[in-house]
Design brief:
With about 300 residues, the chain is mostly helical. About 75% of the residues lie in helices and about 5% in strands.
Length: about 300
Amino acid sequence: MEGSNLTAVTEFILLGLSTRPELQVPLFLLFLMVYLMILLGNLLIVLLIIVNTFLHTPMYFFLTNLSIIEVCYTTCVFPQMFAHFFAERKSISYSCCVTQVYSFLSFGIAECYILSVMAYDRYVAIRDPLRYSATMNKNVCLRLVTGSWMGGFVASLVATVETFKLSFCRDNLINHFLCEMPALFRISCTDTSQAELVSQIICIFTLLSPVIFITFSYIHIINIVLRIRSAQGRRKAFSTCSSHLLVVILFFVTVMSLYMRPKSLYSPDDKIITVFYVAFTPTLNPLIYSLRNKEVKIALRKLLIKTRDT
């Protein structure tokens, strides 16, 4: 019986953001605009960093990786969402659901680690600016980025395997617009305690640990900045960190509010939280890093002048 239950579900039905037919076209247009902004904003940042040699620094190398990650993990979600806005039967095959969970978690966890690396980079830059280039050399940067990506791939593999050990019997209706772990826990017809335990342990290493590391990094940064005598020096030091700190707060608060809680507290409204970190945080990041960053604005101005002249 248990074996048949495990193979009974060959697909899932995603109920989407709304079941009201009159909202499908407006929602499609809204999220199409959001997705295009994510693609254009993040890819523009990558382009600006590649073509401007004065942006070839560790900070912008990490920012390039962050932008690539955000393009990847939103692309795990939006194309399928767009298709389902106009589909009568919003189904996703079992194998595609597994792939989406794994891919989404991989890029999401990699982003957590990249944000931690960026906090460490800012700490090193402010603590010892004269030795910054030697400390954050090319090999160190490559190792930190490689570790971030590999950490995402490995942790998500463990989480995905544990999630799909569960039996879903014949309950294949997911009140969500994507296959996501908390939503799958909610519809499982078997005991999810082991999968939830594994999920919480992974969250400790991929969410809580980065948050603690980033918090301590910024405590040290603030202590260092407050010892700078000139007001201009303090303002410049804070300006290099404020953008990153804003991104961290927006991302981690929303993700932790969903993943670091027990199954009993899951709600159908959780998909609204997911919308925030899937759609709006990646949309805001390019704006935050460009509007609050003098070097990126200079690079963008140079690109616009070059484009106009040609």
